[in-house]
Amino acid sequence: MIHTTQSLRQLSFTSGPEQAEIAAALVLALQADLTQITSFVRTSQNQYRPIFRLPNEVLAEIFFEVRDSLNDNTWMRVMSVCRLWRDVAISVPRLWSIIELDLDMPDEEALLGGLRLVLHRSKQAPLDITVSTRAQALPVHKAHRLDTLAKHVHRFRYVRIRTIHKESLDQISAAFSAPAPQLKTLRLGRFGSTGQHGQIAFPPMFSSDHPKLERLHCWMLWPEAVGRTLKFIFLHAPSNKDQQHQLALAIAQCPNLKQLTLRCVGISPPISQPTPIPLDGDIHLRLESPSPANMFYFSLSPTVSLAIDMLTRTHKGAAVFPHDISSFPQMNNLRELQVSEWNTHPASRLKSIIQVTALSATEHVPPFRIYRPYNPAHRSSASAITILNALLQPLDLRGVKSVTIKAFDPDPFSPPGEDLIEWKAFFFLVPSLETLTIVNSRASIILGALVPDVMPTWPCVETPSSEVGTEGSPLKRKIVTMCPRLKEIVLSNIEFPISTEVVMGMVNSRQKHGSPLKDVFVEGADDAAILSGLSWKELPKLGVIREVPLVVREDRPGDTPRDDDEMMA
Questions:
Q1: pTM score, two decimals?
Q2: Are 343 and 250 members of one domain?
């Protein structure tokens, strides 16, 4: 404003060309004043908005959520909203702790300047580093980026290196030669990894000084100095006897091991006289895309939990188990079965998972789980219940007395009645079933499979018609009841309405043919009305319950079906 007043005074005492110059300067001064006033007004207005009253700590946590949900640098757009947001974002070092360095990108000066800026803003916060390159050898100008990053090795907490060639891996390892006292996770992977890499030695990085290293993802075995602190290991399944022997020795060097994940890409060839790999203690073994060739060389103690992921498309028909499962106590003497279909992305059914959890009757034996990705886009070839039956087919479920079914709905693309037939085939696998719990599923179809039917033994045998016997009399049709020992049914959170006629028809039919139910529980007082008109052969303990047993899932590190590791894909 002062400059504007002075320009007005000069304008009144001048004339000619000088007056034009002063007028132009006056216009610029007025524009600057207008910009300053507008900025002041907007800042004053923002101060009264609710979101600008949040403490800086809360605003920073919101920025963390935005950054983690986007998984790229687009979160930085929040700094363009206002000056306050920019100041908060710059003042929080942890927001700048994730660095993805692509050594193949051009524009060396801009990338190097951006790297230095991020390192400066991260101050002394622990760093999560990803370095990737497809080059066989790094030229000098690309190595400068590594040198800039190598000065902060002491702050590395998470390191992921993606490369193809041994030469570039050696160059990156040489740059990261200083000790890494904060390093907890190390991932060494390759683009387009297929599991066949040949003999590559573990790179000597971080001067073998990383006392906090807990997680290792790699395609090669590790030296003894690396394994002493490891708790979680992810690598490819060994493909020959020598690699099995090396794996057994490496595992023995990891006294703190909690989880071992092995991925097999494709089907491994049979190995004669495999080296047994013993696992004992509180260890979680996870086998991804297993085949008999890479499963039966394990010898598990009863305390080792087991999870099996059917990931590859080579196993479309059924789960693949070894012929001899005596070394897998989790698969023997099963007493309880829990099955569910759930989505890793609730908004999309393109990543649906079939999960099976089986509990052993043997005391102190943890459950083992089977996961199978299921793409509903291919429902014409196999529905969810069809895949479930294929997963269960190799298991002996004759001793299972309790079954929980969660989140199974009929397939809209299946032919009419196919789901009903598949559910009958499912109940054929569990003849000793006594308690059935249905949670968040289309109960009418599942209960319909329990109605006695005119048929020979299941599965998939034609129903006899009124054929003529040897003496000219019609043959008697055989009435078969699925799960004749079933005594209790629990219905919980049924998503679709279930009519009294459905339950009454199933209950009365089972009573008529000698398989009466004793207990039927429904969650919620309103839903109990469907039980009021049922005619019971024996007076049941009719009840309404609020809580029912759901699918058991222990919170174990990494125990999720779709944590697909890109580096091993």
A1: 0.73
A2: no
